[in-house]
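Worked problem 6 (solution included).
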Amino acid sequence: MSEFRKDPILERWVIVATNRSQRPGAFIESQPFDPTLPCPFCRGHEDETPQEVLALRDGKSASDWRVRVVPNKFPCLNLPSTSSEQQAGEEGPLRPSGITYERIDGFGAHEVIVESPRHVFSTSDLTLEELTDVFRAYKMRLARWQADGRMAYGQIFKNAGQAAGASLEHAHSQLLVTPMVPIGIANELAGAQEYYRQRDRCVFCDMICAEIGEGSRLVVETAHHIAFAPFAARLPFETWVLPKRHASHYEQIEETSLGDLAGILRELICRLEAAAGRCAYNYILHTAPLGTSAAAHYHWHIEIVPNLARTAGFELATGYYINPIAPEVAAERMRNVPESRTAE
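Solution. The predicted structure is:
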């Protein structure tokens, strides 16, 4: 039987309809990239990308790097070409109805984090050391933009596979920095703050306690982090990773925790790919806005969303998702993956 489930933060409803997993074409198959195309992210092709803004390297040569961060060659947003600040918003023409349209210049930054000099595709292909460097680069770039003072939010995300939005196969993630807090994040912050106002507790901390205690949606647990399928998972095999210790800002993560985070995320992607196939996926880092103080109501986390099920007219019309696999079933499948499939 289908059921409605409500997300406790956003109060967003999800329909868990397991019978729909039997439909023909219910799941999206990942399409391969063209192997004949040259790759600008591979070692030795550094001159094919914009000039790096950060590199973690062992030596001084241009090609002796572990992780590189470069401006996106086709950015969504740009910093001003002069020292002038963001342009003021312009109002559109006033209509008889009284509506006013607003716009501002596309002010911000768009960076690419090249995750390895090797031509690999997935997070599961990275070594633990490489992935630790990736998370270190995230920390450094968010801290850099926080110090800038002009930006409100830094969104880190990864598109792995064409179906997930990637235009290049080589493992990479992105950072998009905006002068305002995106509406999705603002809604999540507001939902978490309302929960805290009512209960004087962090909703994410409560989720961690509930998932450890109940266990059916728990996938992986380490010394510092936990991974579980959220109760109101929007899509098949959606999984969240959170630090066990309350923390609102990712850029304040301790260096000693980076390896633990890399380990749990790598194992989680390995388990996902063993349980659901080598699918396309996105992961998104949710963190508190730049330049804000530590928040008792908010908890940074990473959401992993495999690109397995299509969203269509009903989802667009209502904002409700239809998930054909219950999160308890998805978590069980990932837990039961043989250890050999997750070994490095």
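Discussion: The domain at 3-33+113-341 is CATH 3.30.428.10 (HIT family, subunit A).
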